[in-house]
Design a protein that fits this description.
Blueprint: E1 5-7, E2 10-12, H1 18-23, E3 44-50, E4 56-61, E5 72-77, H2 80-83, H3 85-88
Antiparallel strand pairs: 1-2, 3-4, 3-5
């Protein structure tokens, strides 16, 4: 476990939240909502584009998609896996080392 963290040579109190430390000195940059209030405390929908062979060619969440036309909802849930579906939903990238799609529905 990390007991001390330094940011710009200044000791950060690890007992306080990251936001409290980062924004304590500059109220102008403090976000209106805490990190995660909107995204992480609600169910997030995961969408995928699927080619004619049934392989997933693109994956994303409704957090980042403004238009879901051409996508199919494949899952829904809470947490980073769902929010950051592009990089965290599957154990491996959707395209393998040879350039082939890896996941099929």
């Amino acid at each position: 476990m990390i007991d001390e963290i330094f940011v710009d040579e200044e000791l950060v109190n690890t007992n306080e939240s990251f936001e409290d430390n980062v924004f304590a000195q500059n109220e102008d940059i403090k976000p209106k909502k805490k990190f995660g209030d909107v995204v992480f405390n609600r169910k997030v929908k995961v969408f995928a584009k699927i080619n004619n062979d049934g392989f997933i060619t693109e994956i994303n969440s409704d957090v980042f998609l403004k238009d879901t036309a051409g996508f199919v909802q494949i899952d829904e849930g809470v947490g980073d896996k769902f929010v950051y579906a592009q990089t965290m939903y599957f154990d491996n990238p959707i395209i393998d080392e040879d350039g082939n799609y890896r996941y099929k529905v």
